[in-house]
């Protein structure tokens, strides 16, 4: 039987077993959430030996070269030495500069990291608070020295409980940056943009909007926000006032099915950015495809719910 060495323990495990399941079964407290390779909560570092990783592309090549792996994706093929991601040593301390609860129980969190964090609009960052880790989309541009997050704390999850207790001046940690399907690209100049968000799916789209404004995108930019409470209404109104090509509208949830059915393309040359729940993203993607939008011009990201209780 293969032997895993981790946290000064030696664990006998089954060959072919999923690494995350093997560690949890042996009582190793591995943070995890989506089990799909999206949240990056289950990072482990393989310092010796090998793991069977069917999806190395899910990690940044630099991090992968350093031995980082996703425990929910790897299977055991032999002896290996592992180390859990420890935010006290591997993540960056950050101070809470703003902590405001907005409409719909959305927390607007602004953090000041102790050292620079390189990222692009539309990417995610790992947030560590009180032993709980979750990935969140960055709702800001790089270069300001601050990280902005929009977090739904309406649910009774472990992270929501932690975030309801923090305040300005508190210390948290931020980890690896990953993702990036919803960033603005300079080659989109000369093409209309359509953005559709449900709830805090607005967060990465807000960073894309700021990047498009900064790039002086000159073609029409339309945002449709689906939800009963638009927590970012004042900021969207201000953006529309200073950027003539930008318009936005809110659709309450009861009206959304009809609005989706009536949706038409402004142009088949448009690029569409969609973010929200998996059901929302699938429904919008199907409607836009049927309306004639080429698949290569559809950029989507779905928020996955934890597959195990928080």
Automatic annotation (TrEMBL):
Pfam families: FAD_binding_6 (PF00970), Fer2 (PF00111). Residues 2-88 form the 2Fe-2S ferredoxin-type domain. One of its GO terms (molecular function) is oxidoreductase activity. SUPFAM superfamilies: 2Fe-2S ferredoxin-like, Ferredoxin reductase-like, C-terminal NADP-linked domain, Riboflavin synthase domain-like. It comes from the Bacteria. Residues 89-185 form the FAD-binding FR-type domain. PANTHER family: NADH OXIDOREDUCTASE HCR, OXIDOREDUCTASE-RELATED. This is NAD(P)H-flavin reductase. It comes from Atopomonas hussainii. The lineage of its organism: Bacteria, Pseudomonadati, Pseudomonadota, Gammaproteobacteria, Pseudomonadales.
């Amino acid at each position: 039987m293969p032997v895993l060495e981790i946290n000064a323990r030696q664990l006998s495990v089954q060959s072919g077993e999923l690494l995350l399941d093997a560690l949890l079964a042996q009582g190793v407290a591995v943070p995890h959430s989506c089990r799909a390779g999206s949240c990056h909560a289950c990072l482990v570092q393989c310092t010796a030996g090998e793991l069977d990783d069917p999806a190395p592309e899910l990690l940044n090549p630099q991090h992968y070269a350093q031995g980082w792996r996703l425990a929910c994706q790897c299977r055991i093929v032999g002896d290996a030495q592992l180390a859990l991601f420890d935010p006290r040593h591997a993540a960056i301390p950050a101070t809470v500069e703003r902590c405001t609860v907005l409409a719909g129980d959305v927390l607007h969190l602004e953090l000041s990291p102790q050292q620079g964090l390189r990222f692009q609009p539309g990417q995610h960052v790992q947030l560590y608070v009180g032993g709980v880790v979750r990935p969140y989309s960055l709702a800001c541009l790089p270069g300001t020295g601050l990280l902005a997050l929009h977090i739904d704390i309406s649910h009774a999850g472990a992270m929501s409980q932690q975030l309801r207790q923090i305040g300005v001046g508190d210390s948290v940690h931020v980890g690896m940056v990953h993702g990036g399907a919803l960033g603005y690209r300079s080659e989109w100049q000369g093409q209309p943009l359509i953005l559709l968000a449900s709830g805090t799916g607005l967060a990465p789209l807000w960073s894309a909007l700021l990047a498009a404004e900064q790039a002086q995108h000159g073609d029409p930019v339309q945002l449709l926000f689906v939800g009963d409470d638009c927590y970012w209404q004042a900021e969207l109104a201000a953006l529309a006032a200073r950027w003539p090509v930008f318009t936005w509208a809110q659709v309450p949830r009861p009206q959304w099915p009809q609005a989706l059915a009536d949706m038409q393309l402004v142009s088949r040359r448009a690029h569409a950015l969609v973010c929200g729940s998996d059901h929302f993203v699938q429904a919008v993607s199907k409607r836009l495809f049927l309306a004639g939008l080429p698949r290569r011009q559809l950029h989507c990201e779905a928020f996955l719910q934890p597959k195990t209780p928080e």
